[in-house]
Specification:
Helix content: 25-40%
Largest sheet: 8 strands, mixed
Strand content: 25-35%
Number of domains: 2
CATH topology of the largest domain: Carbamate kinase
Length: about 425
Amino acid sequence: MIPSELRGILTYTSKFRDQLFVLSVDSEVIADSNFRNLILDISVLRSLSINIIVVHGASQQMKELGQKMGIKPSNTNGMGVTDETTLSLALLAANRISHEFLEAFSETDLRAAVTNAIIAHPTGILGGQDQLMTGRVEKLDIAYLKSLLDLGVVPVLPPLGFDGEGRAYRVNSDGVALEVAQALKASKLMFVGTSNGVVNAGSLAAQFSISEAEDFIKKKRETTPVDVISKLEHGLTACRNGVHRSHIIDGRREEALLSEIFSNEGIGTMIYANEYEAVRKAKKKDVRAIMRLIKNSIQAEELVNRSEAEITQKIQDFFVFEIDKNIIGCVALHDMRPDLPAAEMACLYVSSGYENQGVGRKLMRFVEDRARELGMKQLFALSTRAFNYFQQKGGYLEGTSEMLTLTRREKYEQSGRNSKVLYKPL
């Protein structure tokens, strides 16, 4: 890994530290020659204090075993009828794959444990047909999974569930991963399969909001591979129920996992929940509310003095945080192009009644994400009183006024505020 790539990863470490990623790994990926590289990617994530749970499939290995044994499985993905013979194939294949994960993790000195944390019941009769030994996830042993994570152990979940009497059922791995991600409030649910995501209008569709994903599934269901639609639907459900991001990547590509997580562009398709649902673009009618919000901060010399006319003139740069139609926070993002591929975060303020509730950090992250979307390489912030906050909570570094554009530096010097110049590489 070259130094520039390493720096790219390090910018994300504070964001993801101690968070949970759930990986649903398709059986075809496990059979691929890149499997050991995927394990190395996982070991990198663990070295960055990111918690991992692995759920794996078994369909490819079930097909291969069936061919060797002269058995035709009644289904291989855990979503159709599973007869007794097919269940036996599933048990053999799943146990072999789970052991492969343990072997591979041992090579990278990672501790892992195969678990029976999935409590399942029979799916029952669907469309008039008994699904036999196909199961549905009834619940998960969350306390058990958490205890393993607390010990630094990677839980490995095969596509098998068990009832209270010890009977085994074949379950779908993507469905299990969804249940785990929702129950444990994972930051990411990642489908590591043989597709690099969704191709839309001839090119890879890198990002979908929840509403965009819903619209795509509705319009493109018939022309999109069934497995991709299934993963999109699972990812969509996850994002509706508290998971921040769902990803679809091709696990056969080298460093696919790291490239998707630690680069702005990614290499697959992502569905994202809108964590900024309370943030919107400011409108001209909001100017007086913004002025009332920041009035005391201006008097305390925390913020630069701005008139209504100045805010109105730059209103396209402002965003507000709104709760029950009341503006309780604001921030501005001023474009420094064409002089620099950079922007300035300004006028960040949160009403005193909402301090220490994470609103300021949400506004900071929103502006940072917005700047990245616009192709900015750096974000500046000038502060006289809140520089510790920007450095500790936002990861900003102290710079000098020489880093600013000529026009901005002139304004800086004319103000006489002697603000600290902070910057953050994007």
